[in-house]
Input
Amino acid sequence: MVIPPILDNKHPSMPSVFAPAALLREARRQKGLDTVAVPPVCILDPDGDLVRQLRQSGMAQPFAGWPCYHTELDTFDLGGHRVGIVGRVVGASFAVLVAEELFASGCQLLVSLTSAGQIVPAGQPPYFVVIDRSLRDEGTSYHYAPPSEFAEADPTLVKKAAMALDQSGLHGVVTRGPTTPVCQVGKPCSAPAVGAVLVFSHSGKVVARVRAGAGGRYAVRLRSGYYAVRVSPTPKVGSGLRPLQVRVRAGVFRRLDFEIDTGIR
Output
């Protein structure tokens, strides 16, 4: 049997001649950039819709230290963590290039999140599909892995992703303000409430406590339902926490910011 050219003289176990670190080093040299690690968790957004929405809402900020010639890296808060996102990475060979550069820059987990059409009805759109294997007909992967019909995903990651889609809760930022008697235009009048503890109660029973971390960010998993929320310890001055009542929807991990009134007037 004649070996197809794409498989001829391929040795997947051998180290690659192409070194992403070398490409990044030269790109940083030409652009005058320092070596800065990207967030450990990053997202590929082939459609570009996520990046567009994050930018329009002001939630995403450009990552100035990203040296790639062909893409832009943004960062935003997700579940109490800072994550990276690269938009419009379309095509297997291009996606592999960007992925290699991200991993060489400090990324430890990379997730590709895109849209797809529904051929066979599997539920009421919109819904998520966790891919556990893919048919290898694109060609690019044959330069990286031995021939096979499918590329199999890590079963542990697949299980964790499926479990995450069944979870619900809240994440966001807790701030404390006003921080000055007179707020001035163009100057912040509140500050992250680092260390503040949010206490969530359901039917009169405390079910969760979470402490705001760096930047006032918090994240908490909760079952669907209505919750009363308070801050601990209870402030001696000011009107306290807002909002005091929240709703958590099943399968939704949404952003909700809290404010603690200081009483400064």
